[in-house]
């Protein structure tokens, strides 16, 4: 499928000359990941839900900060996008496994959510590499519907924060299961749509 150029700005497309690992945004990504995972580990050791929530906040704030720094300093790269995607999974896994450790009654919704986020959503998020765009944030030039479901601001909020917030605030296992299953269905439908779209093979 051809990229829709009319929706793109020049910053949408990757520049091979700008690709590098040592950027300020990637430093932020690594720092927030180490901090969040360390706090989650400490929370599990101390059996502290408060520390675990702090770990989640560090993950979320850091995730916003590295993107902001990348755009502000003009160092938004495909390498950085992949690093951010993988570090998000590490932070999320540390938090949710810690939550399952502290509150075993949440194990079912947590593991349904992790199956969705760690496997299906990870595959979807890395699929941007098949096109010459900088990150999944610009997938609207490939397929606007997939972008709306997965990488628009509302799509990201539903996938990354709604589940955790409602689980922590309400403590309702059935609600957690319902949200996790709904997200799993949405990501599965997205995966089918991506399959129909096809992943282009780079020219050799």
Kindly describe this structure.
The protein is globular. It has helices at 24-46, 49-72, 78-102, 107-126, 144-150, 153-170, 173-197. The protein has 2 domains: 18-102, no CATH class; 104-204. The longest helix is centred in the middle third of the chain and has 25 residues, at 78-102. The model has no long low-confidence stretch (mean pLDDT 92). It is built from 7 helices and no strands. It is an all-alpha fold. The relative contact order is 0.13. The two termini are 19 Å apart.
Give keywords:
7 helices
Topology:
Layout: H1 24-46, H2 49-72, H3 78-102, H4 107-126, H5 144-150, H6 153-170, H7 173-197
Question: How would you concisely characterize the structure shown here?
Answer:
The chain has 7 helices and no strands.
Largest sheet: none
Distance between the termini: 19 Å
Order of helices and strands: HHHHHHH
Mean pLDDT: 92
Radius of gyration: 17 Å
Structural class computed from helices and strand pairing? mainly alpha
Helix count, per DSSP?
A: 7
Query: How many domains make up the 3D coordinates?
Result: 2
Strand content: under 5%
Question: Based on CA inertia axes, which overall geometry fits?
Answer: globular
List low-confidence stretches: none
The tally of strands reads 0
Proportion of helical residues: 55-70%
């Amino acid at each position: 499928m051809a990229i829709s150029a009319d929706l793109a700005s020049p910053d949408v497309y990757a520049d091979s000359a700008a690709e590098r690992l040592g950027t300020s945004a990637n430093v932020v990504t690594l720092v927030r990941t180490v901090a969040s995972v360390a706090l989650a580990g400490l929370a599990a050791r101390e059996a502290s839900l408060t520390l675990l929530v702090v770990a989640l906040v560090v993950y979320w704030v850091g995730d916003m900060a590295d993107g902001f720094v990348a755009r502000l300093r003009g160092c938004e790269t495909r390498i950085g996008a992949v690093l951010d995607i993988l570090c998000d999974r590490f932070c999320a896994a540390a938090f949710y496994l810690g939550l399952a450790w502290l509150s075993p009654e949440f194990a079912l919704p947590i593991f349904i959510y992790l199956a969705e986020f760690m496997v299906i959503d990870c595959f979807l998020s890395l699929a941007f590499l098949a096109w010459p765009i900088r990150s999944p944030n610009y997938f609207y030039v490939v397929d606007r519907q997939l972008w709306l479901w997965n990488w628009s601001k509302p799509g990201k909020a539903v996938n990354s924060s709604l589940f955790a917030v409602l689980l922590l605030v309400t403590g309702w296992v059935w609600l957690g299961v319902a949200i996790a299953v709904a997200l799993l269905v949405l990501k599965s439908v997205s995966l089918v749509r991506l399959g129909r779209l096809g992943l282009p093979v780079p020219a050799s």
